[in-house]
Amino acid sequence: MTTPRETGSSGxxxxxxxxxxxxxxxxxxxxxxxxxxxxxxxLLNPVPGDLTQLATRAGTRxxxxxxxxxxxxxxxxxxxxxAVAPDPCPYGTLAALMxxxxxxxxxxxxxxxxxLATLREQALVWGGEDRLRLxxxxxxxxxxxPAHPSPTGLGPTVAExxxxxxxxxxxxxxxxxxxxxxxxxxxxxxALTTVFEDRTRMAELxxxxxxxxxxxxxxxVWGPPYGTVTADPAPHLRxxxxxxxxxxxxxxxxxxxxxxxxxxxxxxxxxxxxxxAPELAPATPHSARTVDAAAAGQAFxxxxxxxxxxxxxxxxxxxxxxxxxxxxRDLKRAAAVLDTTEEAAAFWIxxxxxxxxxxxxxEVDERYxxxxxxxxxxxxxxxxxxxxxxxxxxxxxxxxxxxGSRDAKGRPLNVLAAELDRSPAPEVRHRALALLATxxxxxxxxxxxxLDRMHWERPPRTPAEPGTEDLRTRLARWxxxxxxxxxxTNRGALSAPGRALLGPEKPEGPERPERPAGPEGTExxxxxxxxxxxxxxxxxxxxLAPLLPEPLDxxxxxxxxxAVAPGPLRRPLAQVLGVLADVESKGGATVYRFTPAxxxxxxxxxxxxxxxxxxxxxxxxxxxxxxxxxxxxDVARRHGRLRVGAASSxxxxxxxxMLAEILADRRSAPLRLRRLAPTVLAAQVAPDALLEGLRxxxxxxxxxxxxxxxxxxxxxxxxxPQRTAPAPVPEGPxxxxxxxxxxxxxxxxxxxLASTAERxxxxxxxxxxxxxxxxxxxxxxxxxxxxxxxxxxxxxxxVNAEGAASQRxxxxxxxxxxxxxxxxxxxxxxxxxxxxxITGVAELADEHA
Length: 849
Prior knowledge:
By secondary structure, this protein is of the alpha+beta class. It has 35 helices and 23 strands. A five-stranded mixed beta sheet has the order 16-17-15-14-18, covered by helices on one side. Strands 22-21-20-19-23 form a five-stranded antiparallel beta sheet. Strands 10-11-13-12 form a four-stranded antiparallel beta sheet.
């Protein structure tokens, strides 16, 4: 009896080509094995013990689905053609399915070897050129079935469609097709298949078809191949049914057999083969200098927007919802503060969160507030601040474009909610920008052109619902819009700093590092290591620095209580002016307005009237206007005359007349004031409410501490505890580095050598009558896998959960996840058995096979 180890040995490959995928993997060089593990990193966790385990893992459904999702469109079309081709399939048959009978696009013949090499490298196809085989799971996923129609639009073969048909009906069909009768159903099906595959005889048969019948075939030929008929079909449908051009699929349903459809298609499996990627034809070109300058201006605006957002949340950040995230009302308020749309506001909030500048404070009354990292970020040069934001955006899995949509349970998705992570986002974002980087500087393409290219590189496996787009398409559209907001692109073209973010400079010469090839031989720069990301950020910042405007150290004061900043201001000046005045308008120049409330805000921060006037005199290119000086003196004169402290709260003032005036004012009734002393009033509200109430009445009170000192409040007083930026949610296992790949290949080779080494035969005692077969776990697994490939039945010993032992004869069809599924001849049904409960397995003797 041949053992499973002999079946998987390299000797079989040497005698007549590989008989299993494991044999083919065993014949590959180490570099090819490393390439397989790099392209499909899920196969590496944990490291397979030998090549048989690697081949088994490569055929599991989850791994195959992930591999198919990463194929380009033409490689996937080649796999789909193999799924409807005979198994095994010669290369010539595959080429005919791709090109058709008539000479077609010569690019198909040029691209097919590349597509087949991709399938072979990823262990989705194995075998020689004359015996190409799809991995069984790939065929199950791509082959046509009523529940899952084939992407090619082809139906089942004649043999599959007539599997349950009566012999008499088969004889009627072949007679109507002009064939002589046969003695058995098998030869009848073979004869009908031969006619449908013969171009000349099929043309003669269709030449006599009614026009209505030809029209029906035309509607079914490119799929879906299924249709419905009534109990009394029309004459043209009866003509098709009588000749087997329509075969019954289920009660009331018919199907166009695959062989007939291929004839009508001219031998092609696909209506439109796509051997090459769509060209990125540049749209309206722009000057690279213009694009870089405009993108730099937008980058500077992005910095100001993030600063304005976090400055607004420094003292009174929004509450965190009980379910997490930001409320719709707070999002509207943030959009009003930033003077932008809610969609853009959601992006800026999520960007600050992804960069680690914003987080929840974790207190009982939980609110969002800037983190201590925000203070460090503010002290960086502008170009470095932008590089940090752009790097965080490029790697983030946060997807603000989903805000406002609903999850699977119908609940709305809010800003900063945990459900906004989408693991494909970084890859889609990076790929969209990388395609723009292939264009000349300043060139752009339309969004639809870019999406067509991305769809070719990664075609959607499942079509989206009508009127909607799949997730990767939406991610790409959002990425292009966000890149414009951030200044990575402008006018649809990639800026020089944005280009630098995508990858390190590629040195020329023998020292250039080898990296895996991407679509059409391109060298991908994703994912980047931490060191590469840091180097890219430094290069991007260096390219952006000369494009940013130089910060100014002066303003222009005007007589209407406004100040004009003719450009960006240096940080100390901007910080003080932001407290002393309110921003009235932004643009190329920023206009600030001085009001009593803004001056009082500066006094609350610890400044004096003389300090404020000295500051304005120092930084203004124009004299301090008299109205502004009067405003500062007037507010300062009244500031602090009233003192608020905690009793519940109290109000203290040396001016008894002012206190009497407050008591007499009807607007003070909600404060519930009463006089405790000639210079002291007590209130029944909290100190902060008392402060706000008096300010609303037109006074300028100041808070004081328990020691009687004025409490100085600063805008940056509220910070969260130290927080780290949220880690991106990875999509599947990470791509292994070269060191791990080399070690894994050596370990797999060593394990395979140990498992396939010849051993001295040891006579094993045959099980007694009624005894169970006994084999090791490795031999049990290998025998099951071999039986799946050959379709043979095996004899197993099985112990159930109650400990009862039994013997069974099964025909395994799948080994996956620690279970074997097969047809149990003993029970006459399909069953699934845990491998660890199988005591042993043996091949059946020839007389029982």
